[in-house]
Fold this sequence. Notes:
alpha+beta, Endonuclease III, domain 1, DNA repair
Amino acid sequence: MKERRWEPGGPLDVGLALQPHRRGGGDPTWRRSGDRAVWRTSRTPDGPCTLRVSVEDGSVHGRAWGPGAEWALETLPALLGAHDDVSGFSVRHEVLAEAVRRNPGLRIGRTGRVMEALVPAVLEQKVVGQEAWRAWRWLLTRYGEPAPGPAPEGMRVVPETAVWRQIQSWHWHRAGAEAVRARTIANAAWHAAKLEAAATTEELDRLLRALPGIGVWTSAEVRQRVLGDPDAVSVGDFHLAKLVGYALTGEKTDDRGMLRLLEPYEGHRHRAAVLVWLTGLRPPARGPRMPVRDYRAF
């Protein structure tokens, strides 16, 4: 085990900073223990690791196990938003000002690991979360490896990049992912080295969107997590535009309307969208929900 203490130098909500990396309640890479510590696995450039993050006496305490432990602790501040720059962000709506007051520890962190964010983002394309998270759990249970150290039971580390290229078509089917998403992930894995080396959000966006099956929404979802891009708004999201419209105007809107509403927050549009989510405001449900499909039965 390796350890590190870090002083965040201001309010920090560890759970809120790490929540974007959790893919559903049963995500094998993410757990929250009874003592409020967050456990997370990752495949670092040095190998797999398990990271436990807690707040003790006002400082962040990180413990890590596995070959990637040292890398995980070295990048712990970045993961928790140490580089998150809020300069230029000015709240223009009272409802968001209230969300800022209630969540002073909100920070947008960065993992620096593209494939860990890209695979689940592709699985979430055009399906409900429950369907995508089921596929993510199945694939990690089948192809991931046990988490190093005393991790909570059932935790897994995402497989090596080469594994994503070798998964047989019938196993994608058993996971519940159809051929289009499977091909998108496998093809991206062939370009993983170039993607992981991207130094800026503009470069990563260009490289991602040059790949078949990856568009604006998937690129934004990846850049939010990998590089902590505060402006990478998820255009094309099934729910986001409606939430933004309802929270800021009392009426649902579409992507074009959402971008108009978020225009005053240019440079921080993703941050504003996160604050919208934290308001808890949701438009009244009308009509049936999008069904949970199961490609395993096709």
